[in-house]
Write a structure and sequence with these properties.
Layout (H helix, E strand, L loop, with lengths): L1 E3 H4 L11 H9 L4 E6 L9 E13 L5 E8 L19 E6 L9 E5 L4 E2 L3 E2 L2 E4 L2 E4 L1 E2 L2 H4 L24 H4 L6 E5 L10 H12 L6 H8 L10 E4 L10 E10 L9 H9 L7 H13 L3 E5 L7 E5 L5 E3 L5 E3 L5 E5 L2 E5 L3 E2 L12 E8 L1 H10 L5 H6 L8 H16 L2 E10 L7 E4 L2 H6 L5 H10 L3 E5 L2 E5 L10 H12 L19 H15 L3 E2 L5 E2 L1 H7 L23 E2 L4 H13 L5 E8 L21 H9 L6 E8 L1 E3 L8 E2 L2 H15 L4 E4 L5 E10 L5 E8 L1 H6 L7 E6 H7 L15 E10 L4 H12 L3 E10 L8 E10 L8 H19 L2 E2 L2
Parallel strand pairs: 13-16, 27-30
Antiparallel strand pairs: 1-12, 2-12, 3-4, 3-6, 4-5, 6-11, 7-8, 9-10, 14-22, 14-23, 15-22, 16-19, 17-18, 19-20, 20-21, 24-26, 25-26, 28-29, 30-31, 31-37, 32-33, 34-35, 35-36, 36-37, 38-40, 38-41, 39-40
Helix pairs in contact: 6-11, 7-8, 8-11, 13-14, 15-19, 22-23
Length: 850
């Protein structure tokens, strides 16, 4: 909300020398956040004065452009010249070149003299141009930064002004004013007005607020039978609330709609962030900003009969003031006449009844619409207006007649209107119900001892009616505060008005801690290890499509997994809670690749969401009610299982090509190495076997298992079709493991290796087996056969090609033998090796490669 200070001073005791910063500092004490300062003089400085055109000589130059060589008086004739600036003539008459043609001799205009600075840092100097010394500029509203008019310079008579020559034009146009902008939270819609801000300023300065709306309400005439017929016909209320509870209509005739908007009004509107359009439109906006009540003006001659407020019918359309034709929804609340819809209630009027410069009779609408209805219509049509912002936050239900009276007064004063007798006031509003506030509740809730007098004074100050009844206060919230609904809201208001600074800042004594949990320690160790290994941690969006869960969370194709759908998703493509980290990682990878990052190793640690037998709960306890054990048990039963996974993706090269070093592309081994890092950091045992997964390459997929043979995850290259469909690089690799299960499986026992006192003996063995036999199973068979003397075994070669039968492979292992109590002989090591080969031959038909 932008607050022009000159406007605020009419209704609040703002000191004459107060700045926008001072006002914001004051409003902060009652809960408003500072946003910005709007001060025209920050970009605009004088001398800028009113001048009168004495002569203008058109001159056409060689470039084909016709300019006017003007003589402009900037000091009243016969008065001394007191203006300062290099290039200002002592005679008070300036020679100025002007390219505009929308003025004539005798017109009074705004002249920016040498020494002036215009928005954008444009400094005015005396300079030679088009064969003359031009000492100044005749300004347009655009050049002054007060509008977007492209039709030439500002002629003051066109806006109803006839000031004396030499008058300070900045003061004349209200350019010395300034505006403070504060953030208004959604629950304080009343503060979207000068009335509301003035009230809050008085709260902050502990001064009495005199509500000007009360006088307007007293002067507003009562409804009579001569008013415009209005019917409220809401057959489809939302949430049980009728869409319109009050509708005031007033009529004025003899309106001069082409009359100029006075500068005091247009300058305030401009500072408030609203563009001046025409006098009737400006008056409606002015009253809305001043009182908080949105208005709509209809050209009475364009109305067909009376007004009906109803819901839209199937197939209806409406062309709104922005010249867009909108297909209406049956939930939309409309303003209609006999011809059909003429406005989206509380959002935007229709084009058919729009006022224009020819309008002479105006119907003024001041209504109160349901917050939910307006908010839904605004969002449905992606049409947010100043009116809808106020209606969807709640408008004072006693304000309509007063705001209409204010509009009538301004139309009479500024547009020469005549007030018609007819007054319509459909009023179906309901007074606020009293709220019970226990006397000690606020003190107990806030932690500050508030006296009974402080409580009564604070609540009375916000406009509430307070009645003391023994141990309780009965408090009726004011009509402009729909956000006050219970004792908690009243408590917040008391704390705010008495002062947040009165609430002591007392930090609780922290209980003695026990440090990180085992899970936290292990997780930090894993994240550190992956980061040190060169990977980058990312955080992906946890909401995915159902198809993504079906692809990544199960190895079998064609399965539809049970997943948890969001009640109010941002988009249908992201409507489900993830069951795998991979969909989010793929999106992160794609986004980075599209921005030119070609070599990436990323990982994420996060929760996935696996539904149980029950999803959610119907036993949601009310506010302020402590749930029982049965309710808590039901709530807990509806919470999905949320294990933590760790996943990563590798694309491009592990390192770039450099002198003496060729680039190495990431491959499946990097994914397996990352998994082994995780296992080492957690102390878990992982075995790797050949696996299959619909999202991974058919022949380059490792299934990761724990000591019990249960699947913990997968690693390897992604499926070529998936890479092509997602425009990812070839040979992109990935891994994903169930970190929670790994921690549950790990042994708490840590074995420390002894110091070797005797040397080891190394021997190799190459075995020919069927190509389908996993190397891990062969390794396990060799280890079993070798016995206790075997200290270590690893694969160092997998060969398939010339010399090896089709369908077979040669797998080579390096074996290391050692004894604790002696130096092994070659014969002992060879005997263990032969025993290992025998077990592999028996189990897999392995043949020693010659």
């Amino acid at each position: 909300m932008r607050i022009p200070l000159s406007w605020l001073r009419e209704y609040a005791p703002v000191p004459a020398d107060a700045t926008a910063e001072d006002v914001m500092e004051t409003l902060v004490t009652v809960g408003f956040e500072e946003e910005a300062v709007h001060r025209p003089t920050d970009e605009l400085s004088g001398p800028i004065v009113v001048g009168q055109v004495l002569s203008m000589e058109p001159e056409t130059h060689s470039n084909g452009k016709t300019v006017n060589w003007c003589q402009v008086r900037v000091v009243p004739e016969g008065q001394p010249q007191t203006l300062t600036g290099k290039g200002i003539e002592e005679s008070g008459v300036q020679g100025i070149i002007c390219g505009a043609h929308n003025f004539k001799v005798g017109d009074k205009v705004v002249v920016t003299l040498p020494g002036a600075v215009l928005p954008g840092g444009f400094a005015i100097t005396a300079r030679k141009t088009y064969g003359h010394k031009s000492a100044g500029m005749i300004a347009s509203v655009r050049e002054l930064g007060i509008g977007d008019d492209h039709n030439g310079i500002l002629v003051l008579s066109d806006i109803g002004l006839d000031p004396e020559i030499g008058t300070d034009a900045m003061e004349l146009l209200g350019l010395y004013d300034q505006a403070a902008e504060v953030n208004v939270t959604p629950d304080r819609g009343y503060a979207f007005s000068i009335r509301g801000i003035a009230r809050e300023y008085c709260h902050a300065t502990h001064t009495e607020f005199e509500d000007f709306v009360l006088d307007l309400a007293e002067r507003a005439p009562a409804a009579n039978n001569s008013g415009l017929p209005v019917e409220i016909s809401d057959e489809a209320p939302i949430h049980g609330n009728v869409g319109c509870t009050r509708f005031v209509a007033r009529q004025v005739s003899g309106v001069n709609s082409a009359a100029p908007t006075p500068t005091w009004m247009s300058s305030r509107l401009r500072l408030a962030g609203v563009r001046s359009i025409s006098l009737p439109v400006d008056i409606s906006n002015y009253v809305m900003l001043e009182t908080g009540q949105p208005l709509h003006f209809y050209d009475a001659d364009k109305l067909d009969g009376g007004i009906v407020v109803r819901r839209a019918r199937t197939g209806e359309k409406l062309t709104t003031l922005d010249d867009k034709t909108r297909e209406l929804n049956t939930e939309d609340l409309l303003i209609c006449d006999q011809s059909g819809p003429i406005g989206l209630a509380g959002v935007m009027g229709g084009a058919t009844t729009e006022t224009s410069s020819d309008t002479t009779t105006i119907i003024i609408e001041a209504a109160r619409f349901d917050e939910v209805s307006i908010a839904r219509t605004s969002r449905r049509h992606k049409l947010s207006s100043d009116a809808s912002k106020r209606f969807e936050r709640g408008v004072d239900f006693k304000l309509q007649a007063a705001a209409a009276q204010r509009a009538v007064d301004l139309l009479v004063e500024l547009a020469g209107a005549t007030v018609e007798e007819g007054v319509t006031d459909f009023n179906n509003t309901v007074e606020n119900e009293p709220i019970e506030l226990p006397t000690g509740y606020t003190s107990a809730r806030v932690g500050v001892e508030y006296s009974e007098a402080q409580i009564v004074d604070a609540l009375t100050e916000i406009g509430a009616e307070v009645v003391s009844s023994g141990e309780n206060f009965k408090v009726t919230a004011p009509s402009w505060r729909p956000d006050i609904a219970d004792k908690e809201d009243l408590t917040e208001e008391i704390a705010r008005l008495v002062g947040y600074d009165k609430i002591p800042s007392t930090l609780p004594v922290a209980p003695p801690g026990r440090g990180y949990t085992d899970e936290q320690v292990a997780r930090r160790r894993v994240l550190d290890a992956l980061a040190v290994a060169g990977m980058t941690e990312v955080q992906a969006y946890p909401f995915v499509a159902q198809t993504a869960n079906n692809l990544w969370a199960t190895p079998e194709a064609g399965q539809k997994l049970e997943s948890i759908k969001l009640a109010n998703p941002i988009a249908e493509t992201q409507a489900w809670l993830r069951r795998s980290l991979m969909p989010g990682l793929v999106e992160v990878l794609k986004r980075n690749l599209s921005r030119g990052f070609k070599n990436l190793a990323i990982f994420e640690s996060g929760h996935v969401f696996i539904p149980g037998s029950q999803t959610g709960s119907t036993h949601i306890p009310g506010l302020g009610a402590k749930p029982g054990d049965d309710v808590l048990a039901d709530l807990n039963a509806g919470i999905p299982f949320q294990p933590r996974y760790v996943a990563g993706l590798f694309a491009g090269n592990e390192h770039a090509e450099m002198p003496g070093t060729t680039a190495r592309a990431y491959d499946w081994r990097d994914a397996l190495d990352a998994v082994q890092l995780i296992a080492d950091a957690t102390g878990a045992e992982i075995s790797v076997v050949q696996g299959t997964h619909q999202a991974f390459h058919p022949g380059r997929t490792a299934e990761l298992r724990n000591s019990e043979g249960e699947t913990l995850g997968f690693a390897g290259e992604l499926h070529p079709k998936l890479l092509k469909d997602n425009d990812l690089p070839e040979r992109t690799c990935a891994f994903e493991v169930d970190f929670t299960r790994m921690l549950n499986d790990k042994s708490d026992r840590v074995e420390a290796y002894g110091i070797f006192g005797y040397p080891a003996t190394n021997q190799d063995v190459a075995l020919i087996v069927d190509a389908t036999v996993p190397a891990a199973e062969i390794s396990a068979a060799l280890a079993e056969g070798a016995g206790d003397l075997l200290e270590d075994i690893r694969v160092f070669d997998d060969y398939r090609g010339v010399g090896i039968e089709e369908g077979k492979k040669s797998v080579a292992f390096a074996l290391r033998f050692r004894a604790d109590d002696r130096t092994l002989t070659a014969e002992e090591a060879s005997a263990s090796r032969e025993a290992a080969i025998a077990v592999a031959a028996e189990r897999f038909g392995a043949v020693l490669r010659g």
